[in-house]
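Tutorial, part two.
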Amino acid sequence: MDRVRRMEHLGRTIILLDVSGCSATEAAPQLVLGRKMIATCAPKTALTLTDVTGARFDDAATREAQTNANENGPYVRAAALVGVTGLKQIVYNVVTRMTGRDYKVFATREQALAWLVAQP
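Running the prediction step on this input gives:
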């Protein structure tokens, strides 16, 4: 199954960026694919779920996450993250501080999906 894909949940389209379990070198290209997919959406319409559970981030993957946050901002209505623990909390803090983007962090995909579909 593709790590970056559109999925339906309760009648709403969600863009899933699944980098769970990825090494840093595997995560960065997936984030690029996600950025390209999100950029095809109309402004302020995309609902995104990024799962970083067990993923590793190095400087390149962190820069890619920042680039995604900067470039996708105009297209995203709501963004949810899953798996932000340990060192990924530092990456999350850096990205949100440098980009001004607001992400909602959840413990599980199910919680994130429930929140996303509830967004107007």
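The chain has one domain: 4-117. In part three we will examine how such features are distributed along the chain.
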